[in-house]
Amino acid sequence: MNRTVYLNGDLIAEADAKISVFDRGFLFADAIYEVTAVVEGKLIDYPGHKARLRRSLDALGIPMPVAEEELLALHKEIARRNGIAEGLIYLQISRGVQERDFLFSRDTEPTIVLFTQSKRILHNPKWKTGLALQTVPDGRWSQRQIKTVQLLYSSLMKTDAHSKGYDDVLFVEDGYVTEASSANFHIVTSDGVVVTRELSDALLHGITRSSILDLARQAGLAAEERRFTVDEARSAAEAFVTSATSFVTPVVSLDGQKIGTGDVGPVSQRLLDIYVNNQLAQGLAVAG
Ligand code: PDD
Hints:
- The chain has 8 helices and 16 strands.
- The chain is an alpha+beta fold.
- It has 2 domains: 4-123, Aminotransferase class 4, branched-chain amino acid transferase, N-terminal domain (D-amino Acid Aminotransferase, Chain A, domain 1, 2-Layer Sandwich); 126-281, D-amino Acid Aminotransferase, Chain A, domain 2, CATH 3.20.10.
- The strands form 2 sheets. Strands 7, 8, 9, 10, 11, 12, 13, 14 and 15 form a 9-stranded mixed beta sheet that branches. A 7-stranded antiparallel beta sheet has the order 2-1-6-5-3-4-16.
- Strand 13 (238-243) and strand 14 (247-254) form a beta hairpin.
- The protein is globular and about 55 Å long.
- The chain starts with a strand and ends with a strand.
- Bound molecules: N-(5'-phosphopyridoxyl)-D-alanine.
- N-(5'-phosphopyridoxyl)-D-alanine binds at residues 35, 179, 182-184, 204, 206-209, 242-245.
- Residues 35, 179, 182-184, 204, 206-209, 242-245 line the site of N-(5'-phosphopyridoxyl)-D-alanine.
């Protein structure tokens, strides 16, 4: 790998990018992040990611280290430098470098990093086959609306599920579905209503989720925001997840039991098509 990465004001070779061992992102997971997809040289849903970045920083009291226009310019520049036509841009901001102490000071300079990853986003093979999920208890902390880098529980659970042949996990709390390890989860009822959990601290306020809800309603589909049990999910007509990197990906089974027909459902397929068309028309060109 010979990428150019961005670290605290400099675009440098990845091998030269070094962060202190005293960075609170490293010691306390005191950091937040965003992931923005790039498809056909366009930033996907960028305004939403920028707005949530601000909310996550405010929630932790970390100052925004760069101006908004500069942040957009950096996203474009790093995609151009690395020749990313399809993939993602990862952005992380930590509270910065301090002596290790549970009591932190609010006046350190944040550490900001951006890097790119090439990744196949369009023509995802899972769009055709759908995902197999395993339900597991939601053991994460309670402030899940903040996009922090505390991802260990999710990573352990997903890796364990993967070793058993599942694609991902579906988190369940008090009998209700929260979300998947790194995507929001939605069902379609037998009446064709798209149901997604209402926003709260229990789940990440997904940017793709929000776009899909708007687009579904514009397309004349009924959409409800309310919590639903894992039993309701098991008996749904369809299910799908949404995220920056998976867009709309059908879910065809839970714990080995088929959802609906066990095939990709028409509503999921339609929402995926609508989302791709909409974003390719609206995405901000990295060359611009
Ligand atoms: N994850 N829920 C969780 C826990 C997530 O980590 C993500 C995204 C989402 C979907 O949010 P959005 O639509 O804004 O991407 C929901 C990213 C892709 C990641 O961690 O790589």
